[in-house]
Amino acid sequence: MHSIAAYQEQFLNYLEGQKILKEPTHLYQPITYILGLGGKRMRPVLTLMAAEVFDVDYKKALPAATAVEVFHNFSLVHDDIMDDAPLRRGKETVHEKWNLNTGILSGDAMLILAYQYFENYEPSTFRELAKLFSKTALEVCEGQQYDVDFETRDDVTIPEYLKMIEYKTAVLVGAAMKMGAIIAETSEENGNLIYDFGLNLGIAFQLQDDYLDCFGNPETFGKQVGGDIIENKKTYLYLKAIEFAKADEREQLLHLYSIQPNDNSEKIESVKEFFN
Ligand code: GRG
């Protein structure tokens, strides 16, 4: 096994060697832009690691690792459009830097591009990878829809929330790892075991992501939950706050929760005060 940094370096070398930028440049430039913006490269590293766990040269898993990272970045481009987010990884989002249509079309192209990386494998492996990938992509879509649906509901339960993050975030982590197992041609049982490991890792990762959103930055310490409520975001911290709140506080929370983004600033301040 190698260090995480070594897997990251190998992956980045491979990614750089890909000739993604071609005509029409307005379609492909945003793709190279988002893929070049950095990020932790957690998913491709996990694909490479999983391949090695099952005794195959991790380099064989580089195309599948790229498929996973391209797909992940595609989902970020479209997620940023849906959230109208100005920044991604501290830089302008694709739709902000170019425009909405470019964000949609470049994102679409990334989804197809991701699939094409599986063509590097022989037919039976290709079939298994493509099957897993289709199932996963659809689940990510479903998870995203649950997340959107939850914005207009005030009765979301923690099990429902956990299901939503399993689909939106964790299935891709599970699939990233299972791809390593498929490429290594290990047993189905091993493939399922490493998928479950990745799934749980993905759930833990999303819970931590929610936590860091709230407490990760000292400048916004404790304020994000209030912000999430204003934006109607259902996060683990918000749902836990509701669960633990005493009955009268719960009523107050739910009342505050009815606040809309265009409500006056006095109301918004009262939400923030509540969480300070
Ligand atoms: C699947 C067809 C299809 C459509 C996509 C937009 C959408 C539907 C889904 C959004 C899924 C999404 C953005 C989930 C959040 C996943 C997540 C935790 C992102 C942050 O991951 P990090 O921290 O990011 O690994 P870096 O920047 O390190 O790559």
UniProtKB/TrEMBL annotation:
Superkingdom: Bacteria
Cofactor: Mg(2+)
Alphabetical list of CDD domains matching this protein: Trans_IPPS_HT (cd00685)
Pfam families: polyprenyl_synt
Keywords for this protein: Magnesium, Metal-binding, Transferase
A biological-process GO annotation: isoprenoid biosynthetic process
GO MF annotations in UniProt: metal ion binding; prenyltransferase activity
Coiled-coil annotated residue ranges, if any: none
InterPro entries found in the cross-reference section: Isoprenoid_synthase_dom_sf (IPR008949), Polyprenyl_synt (IPR000092), Polyprenyl_synt_CS (IPR033749)
Family of the protein in this entry: Belongs to the FPP/GGPP synthase family.
Protein name per its UniProtKB record: Geranylgeranyl diphosphate synthase type II
